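Example 242, ligand iron/sulfur cluster.
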Amino acid sequence: MPRSFVQEARRPVGRRRDRIRPIIERLAEEHADAKIALEFGNPLELLISVMLSAQTTDVNVNRVTKTLFRKYRRPEDYLAVAREELEQDVYATGFFRQKSKSIQGAAHVLLHEFGGEVPHTVDELLRLPGVARKTANVVAAELGNPQGIVVDTHVRRLSQRLGLTRQEDPVKIERDLVKLVPRADWGRFPHLLIWHGRRICDARRPLCEACVVADLCPAARVWTGLPPGGTIEAPPTPRRGR
Ligand code: SF4
């Protein structure tokens, strides 16, 4: 079980329903450039990139797919090579055996059940071998059809610190978030938390003093060391143009 951040959310700062809108608005202003970091040119490349991104960095995936996508353009191409060849081609992303097996399995189902096209719904995406809920959510959201909220390590940590959930399990966290976050924001919400997590709300050393949602965050006290009853100042003016 990864480290929990639920206990850090100690300071009462109001109802979740009242805080969610300003949290989204401020983070959207602060991280106007927040978007998926994987590079892809079509739905198939998106699917393969997300499948390869398990247990590695987006930068590493982009480095591999730059070459990979010149060689493999259609589902048929992934099936036209021996498993060992594909393993070599995705080796640098780690877990290359399992990933190659999943990619070829997914390519097979795409061809035989979806006419060679990547489906747009989570339920259909989940029928592809090696595609779990997180991958399906990411792909559906990027294809303009978010049907849930992607919960990765950053989304989990920030949702817990911001007091939006007290759950530990990603599926249960997602269940809390979809009840809270307006549907129109399901696609961008994870990106906002991911980018805020990378830039400000680090797991070990969050920069609460520089955080635009500090006054809305029940975990801020832990890091700012305010005395009991102390208040957190209104957030600094959001930084723009980053
Ligand atoms: S940086 Fe601090 S105040 Fe901001 S979300 Fe993280 S824990 Fe809360």
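Summary: The two ends are 34 Å apart (CA to CA).
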